[in-house]
Amino acid sequence: MPVKKHHLLACLLLLLTSAFYAQPALVPYRLNTKWGFADMTGKLVIPAKYPPGTKQ
């Protein structure tokens, strides 16, 4: 039985720490030919000043 309690505690701690360190989701947006990022509410986080990426 004690092993199951340790596993449950470890899973709980892992869940809490992963939620604590989670990064907010960013959405890419384009303004003319430049790209930037906004958060999920539409607030601009990174201004549109970067050119599009290219495939190699």
- The secondary-structure element order is HEEE
Helix content: 25-40%
Radius of gyration using CA atoms only: 20 Å
Low-confidence residue ranges: none
Q: Biggest β-sheet: count, sense, barrel?
A: 3 strands, antiparallel
> Structural class of the secondary elements?
alpha+beta
The best one-word shape is: rod-shaped
Strand residue percentage: 25-35%
Instruction: Give the strand line-up of the largest sheet.
Output: 1-2-3
Number of helices: 1
Count of extended strands: 3
Distance between the termini: 54 Å
Averaged pLDDT:
80
Give an overview of the whole structure.
This protein has 56 residues and is an alpha+beta fold. The chain has one helix spanning 2-20; strands at residues 26-31, 34-39, 44-50. It has a 3-stranded antiparallel β-sheet, with no helix packed on it. The model has no long low-confidence stretch (mean pLDDT 80).
Entry summary:
The protein is α+β, with helices and mostly antiparallel strands and about 55 residues long.
Features:
3-stranded antiparallel sheet; alpha+beta; 56 residues
Give the SSE map.
Layout: H1 2-20, E1 26-31, E2 34-39, E3 44-50
Antiparallel strand pairs: 1-2, 2-3
